[in-house]
Amino acid sequence: INVVFIENYSVSLAELIIPAGEISEQISLAGKEASGTGNMKFMINGALTIGTYDGANVEIISEVGEENFFLFGLRDHEVESIWNHGYSSIQYYQKNLKLRKIIDFLNKGINGKSFESISKYLLGGSAVGDPYMCFADFDSYMEIHRKASHLYYSDKMKWNQMSLMNIGSAGIFSSDRTVREYTEKIWGLTPVNK
């Protein structure tokens, strides 16, 4: 896997990057995603999505089916229930060796630069740690990532079939339909046909 951070991201750069993507990771906490149109752009170009049941992912799953999507993580009602009972990132940290190693790595840092501020944010202190519940979704995320990687390397035919299902199901996300829906449902206008 290659992770690339691009400075000054723009539409012009997106035009180069999105068609090259084979996977799109949409990993928001269920109930926290505002929109999510980026994953639709990846979808229409054949990328498969690793994501939570949130935002535009819900619509994508509705169109392609869960069998053509790599779904992980808590659902919004589960998030709410955990918050109501008191979420504690430290409990996840204490139970998960891999998470402990990651936090220790952040504290140790790289080339003399510590990332202790990130670990404090995740573990809390005076505030609630890990407010986006990354730790709660961590094991599920790792498992779906293993599944996606295994499929990518072991069954190219299945991967390509899933990719084609995503491309073939992306029509509902066309800007024509979106503008028509906004015109009728939000703005209360009747389009003039010419």
How many distinct domains?
Answer: 2
* Sheet with most strands: strand arrangement: 1-2-3
Task: Please identify, by name, the CATH architecture of the largest domain.
Answer: 3-Layer(aba) Sandwich
CATH topology group of the largest domain? Rossmann fold
- Counted beta strands: 3
Q: How many helices does DSSP assign?
A: 10
End-to-end Cα distance: 49 Å
Classify the helix fraction into a percent range. Answer: 55-70%
Gross morphology = globular
* Level-1 CATH class name of the largest domain: Alpha Beta
| Poorly predicted sequence stretches spanning 5 or more consecutive residues | none
Outline the biggest β-sheet.
Answer: 3 strands, parallel
Fourth-level CATH superfamily of the largest domain: Glycogen Phosphorylase B
Helix-and-strand structural type: mainly alpha
Gyration radius, rounded: 20 Å
Question: How do the SSEs run, as a string of H and E?
Answer: HEHEHEHHHHHHH
Outline the structure in words.
- It is a single chain.
- With 194 residues, the protein is mainly α.
- It has two domains: 11-87 and 135-186, 3-Layer(aba) Sandwich (Rossmann fold); 88-129, no CATH class.
- 55% of the residues lie in helices and 5% in strands.
- It has helices at 11-17, 38-44, 56-64, 76-85, 89-95, 97-108, 116-123, 134-154, 156-169, 175-186; strands spanning 23-26, 48-51, 70-71.
- Strands 1-2-3 form a three-stranded parallel β-sheet, sandwiched between helices.
- β2, α3 (56-64) and β3 form a beta-alpha-beta unit.
- α5 packs across α6 and α6 (97-108) packs antiparallel against α7 (116-123).
- The relative contact order is 0.13.
- The model has no long low-confidence stretch (mean pLDDT 90).
